[in-house]
Amino acid sequence: MRHEYKGRFITFEGGEGSGKSTQVALLTDYLNKRGIQAIKTREPGGSSGAEDIRALLLKGGSDRWDGMTEVLLHSAARRDHLVKTVWPSLEQGMWVVCDRFFDSTLAYQGWGHGIDLHSIAVAIGLSAGTFKPDLTLILDMDVTQGLERAKGRGQGQDRYESMDVSFHERLRQGFVDIARAEPERCALIDAGQTPDQVHQAVVERVEAQWLRN
Ligand code: TMP
């Protein structure tokens, strides 16, 4: 069921190094140039409190938090982000383009860490209610290539990047399964292409859904 806000909520998902941040910026610029007021944001983060929780989640050794604690921290961050940033912006009629949302919790904590999907669904319900994205663009690419790209950014590895390759393979499968289960909301996009080609694929999907004519 679609939410009742005037604006649209578009999320990008994918593994490490899949180019989400670039695509979030490109789509936001594209929408603004089309005369649609759009803002970009991210999870975990996107509000002052959620950015504080992000620092807790990304720093430290890979075993700093167990999987269920991660679900709870990501959910707390999500709640603050929704209440302080996303919902007020949608209410004003803006479009919100978000780098990761609840599908990351399903893929990383569910498929990746093995937390049961029912518990995750409960946490998502507590933090977001029935609210969901209008469109989710999932950037899919080879895990090893993605991790290499992420390393190339030179910011040092965060907790998730330092998890083993099988963890990343599992969450990639998670995103593919999510896309298959919800084809109306989710589009799987080949992120092995150039950033320009990926942007074209994104724009085609957005145009097909809302902007033609
Ligand atoms: P990123 O902004 O560089 O993508 O980093 C955020 C990290 O947090 C990324 O490794 C994925 C992870 N994450 C989860 O594990 N679960 C979640 O619910 C979200 C939103 C992110």
Number of strands: 5
CATH architectural arrangement: 3-Layer(aba) Sandwich
The residue-averaged pLDDT reads: 96
Helical/strand content category? alpha/beta
Summed up, the helix count is: 8
**N-to-C CA distance:** 25 Å
Strand neighbour order, sheet with most strands:
2-3-1-4-5
Q: Order of helices and strands, N to C?
A: EHEHHEHHEHHEH
Ligand names: thymidine-5'-phosphate
CATH superfamily, by name, is P-loop containing nucleotide triphosphate hydrolases
Specify Rg, calculated over alpha carbons.
16 Å
What count of structural domains?
1
CATH topology: Rossmann fold
The CATH class turns out to be Alpha Beta
Extract low-pLDDT stretches: none
Outline the biggest β-sheet. 5 strands, parallel
**How helical, in percent, are the residues?**
40-55%
Which word captures the global form? globular
Give the percentage of residues in beta strands: 5-15%
In a few lines, what is going on in this structure?
The protein has 8 helices and 5 strands. The protein is α/β, with parallel strands linked by helices and 213 residues long. The two termini are 25 Å apart.
